[in-house]
């Protein structure tokens, strides 16, 4: 099994070559852009970022939709002025052209002036043996603007504390990315397909979960 990347609007954007060596060397990548498909990574001003720097992924090519039917306002925000499609995904491209996804742009929050991507924090927390599942969201904070709150489903038999998870995370991610609050729950609100409904987490009490 190899990873690839695409969407309804773009079709297949990229895919990993069928090479055990490359899959190992490029672990976490969704591969190289396909034929006639171009990928850019840009900052908030739609300017290309340097190799390895994260930003929004833009896609261009014959498989990309020309636009949303009868939705002119949507098209204005979905495409750049020169016709590149805004995926809404945050990622980076390495020196060999391999694409790495980081998170959805809408999931990002800003803590103390720094961008925090929940998927990166969740991946770090999930490495703790006492964590069965985790979801991280940004919540208002008087000092930092926003701060990370982690919702944790703990493994049976583990008496996890917030301090335990902070110590674990500090060896894996930058200090400003470490959640400042932890809420332990029994489960998460989910869609019919099993996707965590993060927008509901802050409004759902632990008792209801």
From TrEMBL:
Residues 120-195 form the AMP-binding enzyme C-terminal domain. Residues 1-69 form the AMP-dependent synthetase/ligase domain. The keyword Nucleus does not apply. Gene3D superfamilies: 3.30.300.30, N-terminal domain of ligase-like (3.40.50.12780). One of its GO terms (biological process) is fatty acid metabolic process. The keyword Magnesium does not apply. Keywords: Ligase. GO terms for molecular function: medium-chain fatty acid-CoA ligase activity. It holds the Pfam family AMP-binding. Belongs to the ATP-dependent AMP-binding enzyme family. This is 3-[(3aS,4S,7aS)-7a-methyl-1, 5-dioxo-octahydro-1H-inden-4-yl]propanoyl:CoA ligase. It comes from Colletotrichum spaethianum. The lineage of its organism: Eukaryota, Fungi, Dikarya, Ascomycota, Pezizomycotina.
């Amino acid at each position: 099994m190899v990873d690839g990347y695409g969407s309804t609007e773009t079709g297949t954007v990229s895919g990993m070559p069928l090479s055990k060596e490359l899959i190992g060397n490029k672990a976490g990548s969704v591969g190289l852009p396909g034929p006639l498909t171009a990928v850019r990574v840009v900052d908030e001003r739609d300017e290309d970022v340097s190799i390895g720097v994260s930003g929004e992924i833009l896609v261009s090519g014959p498989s990309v939709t020309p636009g949303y039917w009868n939705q002119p306002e949507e098209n204005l925000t979905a495409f750049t002025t020169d016709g590149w499609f805004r995926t809404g995904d945050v990622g980076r491209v390495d020196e060999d052209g391999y694409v790495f996804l980081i998170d959805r742009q809408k999931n990002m929050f800003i803590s103390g002036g720094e961008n925090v991507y929940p998927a990166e924090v969740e991946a770090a927390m999930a490495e703790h043996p006492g964590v069965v599942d985790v979801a991280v969201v940004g919540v208002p904070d008087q000092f930092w603007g926003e701060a990370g709150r982690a919702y944790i489903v703990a493994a049976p038999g583990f008496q996890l504390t917030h301090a335990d998870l902070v110590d674990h995370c500090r060896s894996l991610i930058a200090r400003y990315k470490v959640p400042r609050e932890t809420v332990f729950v029994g489960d998460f609100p989910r869609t019919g397909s099993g996707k965590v409904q993060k927008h509901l987490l802050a409004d759902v009490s632990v008792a209801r979960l």
